[in-house]
Amino acid sequence: MSDNLEQIEKILRSVIETLEDGYKGFAESGKEFEDATIKTFFLEESQVRARFASELENELSHLSVKRVRERGTTTRTLHRTWAEVKAHLGGGDHTLLVTAEQGENRACEAYERSLKENLPADVEEVLKRQQQYIIQSHAKVRMWRDAACC
Q: In angstroms, rounded to a whole number, what is the distance separating the alpha carbons of residues 76 and 83?
């Protein structure tokens, strides 16, 4: 595999890992919300993150990169576990939203980093489309977080 292809794979694997963490985080948090609208949003977002990860896996496949599923990072797994503990200790919806917003910050950063790299146009197009969606989702989570604080 060429150095350029290895770099593209590394970049996409990083975003895929972030998306998989988001998938798990949204699914786990979604179960805990009291507000039905937020609960539904989180469970739907979980599926969107899984679809986005799959799209990037397909891009890797088109580049002839062997498919290997990533599992998420230890740090992010600990972050999700901490969110669960806080929810069970009575942090409620606001606490879950604060934690989710932190995760959304990391997702936005992952896309920003990836789009600074030299990528094939079709890969860049997929990342930009996904990034726009992530930014809108982030804004919604932040809005709910701010509204739930007081």
A: 10
DSSP assignment string, 12-70: HHHHHHHHHHHHHHHHHHHTT-SSHHHHHHHHHHHHHHHHHHHHHHHHHHHTTPPP---
Is the Cα dihedral 143, 146, 148, 150 positive or negative?
A: negative
* pTM, rounded to two decimals: 0.84
Q: How many residues does the chain have?
A: 150
Splitting the chain (150 residues) into consecutive groups of 10 residues, what average pLDDT does each group show?
Answer: 83 95 91 93 96 95 70 51 50 86 94 96 97 97 88
Consecutive H or E run containing 87? none
- Decide: 86 and 96 in contact? Cβ < 8 Å: yes
